[in-house]
Design a protein that fits this description.
387 residues; alpha/beta; 30% strand; 7-stranded mixed sheet; 22% helix; globular
C-alpha cells in the first residue's frame, strides 16, 4: 500500500478517536458508558478463548490484539495470557487505551504507523486476535498484515481474525454440502439467557440463547444422562467447520407485531460453533436489531437448516418473547461543518477468500477453520489459522 493511503487510514482513525472512539469501535451505540463498553469485550474474549482452547489448545504466554483501539479486547486478554500487546494505527486510540489500562505492565500498547509488524520478531505470539479491523484497511496492507500474523505467530499458536467479502457464498471448491435432516431431527429446545424487555429502535443487541439438540427420540423417559457418540440414536447437527455453507444449521430470529404479522421475518443468523450431539446443548450469541418503529412486538427465536426449513415449521418449539421498542431519541454528536462525518471516515475493504488463504500460506501458516457469517450488506469470514 502506498504511504499516502496508509497516512489516510491513520488520519481517519485518529479523527474517529478524537470524535467518538467508543462508537468507532462498536457502532451499535452512539453514547457508550465506558463500563458497559468494556464489559462487552470481557464477554467476547471469555467466549472466544473458551472456544479456542476447546478447538485448538494453545499456550497462554503472550497474545497480540491487532487493531486494539482503546483496549476493549486487549484488557480481557490479559486475564487469560501472561502478556498482551495491543497495536493500533491511531495515536488517539492508544492514548485512551493507556489511560484506562487496568492491568499495568501485562498490557503494552504500541502505536504502529507501518503497514507491517516489524516491531515484533518472528515466533512471538501464542495467540493473535483481530476483530472488526482488517475490513477497514485497504487490500494490499490487509493481505500483508495477514502474512505478518503468520510470521509473528509461534509454531502451534493460533491466529483468529475476521474479514468481509461481498460474495454471498463461499468458493465452490471448499464448500461442503450436508444432507437434509430427517423429520425427527428438526427438534430443538431454545432457552434465552439474556433479553432486555425494552429495546431502542434500530439498535442492535446481542442475545445469548442456549440451544439443545432434541433429535434423539428413542431415549427412555427419565434418563437424563448425556449419550456418547456410540450410543446416540438421534442425529448430529453439523456445525460451521470450514464454512459448510450448504444446508448448515443456524440460530435465527423473527420480529412480529401485535397483530401477529411479520415485521422482520429474518433478522439475524448465527451458525453452530461446532457439531452438536443429540441431547447436548451449546450457548450461541445472536445479534438482533430492534424494529425501526416504536411499539410492542414479539421476538421469536428458531433454528433453521439453510435451504431446507425452519425448525418451527417442522413442529419444533420456538422461543417467543414480548419486547417493547422505544423510539431512538439519542441525538447524534455534531461535528464542525468543515469536517467529514464519522461514517465517511470508516471505509470498508472486502477481501476475497482465496486471497486470504493465499496470504496465510505465503506467511508460512495454514487455515484450520473458516466460519461464514452474513448480514444485510456483507458476508463475513472468520479465520482460525496456525503454523
Amino acid at each position: 500500500m502506498a504511504n499516502k493511503d496508509f497516512e489516510t487510514v491513520s488520519e481517519n482513525w485518529n479523527r474517529l478517536g478524537a470524535i467518538n472512539p467508543l462508537w468507532a469501535i462498536l457502532t451499535s451505540d452512539e453514547n457508550w458508558d465506558m463500563e458497559v463498553f468494556l464489559k462487552t469485550g470481557e464477554q467476547e474474549i471469555d467466549r472466544r478463548i473458551k472456544q479456542v482452547q476447546e478447538f485448538h489448545p494453545i499456550d497462554v504466554g503472550r497474545a497480540l490484539d491487532f487493531g486494539c483501539g482503546v483496549g476493549r479486547l486487549t484488557q480481557p486478554l490479559a486475564k487469560h495470557f501472561e502478556q498482551v500487546d495491543g497495536v493500533d494505527v491511531a495515536q488517539t486510540m492508544i492514548d485512551i487505551a493507556r489511560d484506562i489500562n487496568r492491568f499495568g505492565g501485562r498490557c503494552t500498547y504500541h502505536h504502529n504507523e507501518k503497514s507491517d509488524l516489524t516491531l515484533f520478531p518472528d515466533d512471538t505470539f501464542d495467540f493473535i486476535n483481530s476483530s472488526l479491523v482488517l475490513q477497514h484497511i485497504p487490500r494490499p496492507a490487509s493481505l500483508n498484515y495477514i502474512r505478518e500474523f503468520m510470521r509473528v505467530l509461534k509454531p502451534g499458536g493460533l491466529a483468529f481474525f475476521q474479514v468481509v467479502n461481498t460474495c454471498g457464498t463461499a468458493s465452490n471448491n471448499i464448500q461442503q454440502q450436508y444432507p437434509v435432516l430427517p423429520s425427527h431431527a428438526f427438534n430443538a429446545q431454545l432457552t434465552v439467557l439474556n433479553l432486555p424487555a425494552k429495546m431502542t429502535s434500530n439498535r442492535t443487541y446481542e442475545v445469548m440463547v442456549r440451544v439443545k439438540n432434541l433429535s434423539n427420540y428413542n431415549k427412555p423417559d427419565g434418563d437424563n444422562t448425556p449419550l456418547t457418540p456410540a450410543e446416540h440414536d438421534g442425529v448430529i447437527w453439523h456445525g460451521a467447520t470450514f464454512i459448510r455453507a450448504k444446508r448448515s444449521i443456524k440460530l435465527g430470529n423473527h420480529w412480529w407485531d401485535e397483530s401477529g404479522r411479520p415485521v422482520k421475518y429474518d433478522d439475524g443468523r448465527t451458525p453452530l460453533p461446532h457439531d452438536i450431539l443429540p441431547d447436548f446443548e451449546v450457548d450461541i450469541p445472536i445479534k438482533v436489531t430492534a424494529p425501526a418503529t416504536a411499539g410492542r412486538y414479539t421476538l421469536e427465536f428458531d433454528m433453521v437448516q439453510e435451504g431446507v426449513a425452519w425448525f418451527g415449521k417442522q413442529g419444533s418449539a420456538t422461543s417467543r418473547h414480548p419486547v417493547t421498542v422505544r423510539r431512538n431519541g439519542v441525538r447524534l454528536r455534531s461535528t464542525p461543518p468543515a469536517q467529514p462525518t464519522k461514517e465517511s471516515l470508516m471505509n470498508m475493504y472486502p477481501l476475497k477468500l482465496t486471497e486470504v488463504i493465499g496470504a496465510v500460506r505465503a506467511g508460512g501458516g495454514s487455515v484450520l477453520d473458516i466460519i461464514e457469517r452474513g448480514d444485510l450488506n456483507w458476508t463475513q469470514y472468520i479465520y482460525y489459522c496456525t503454523k
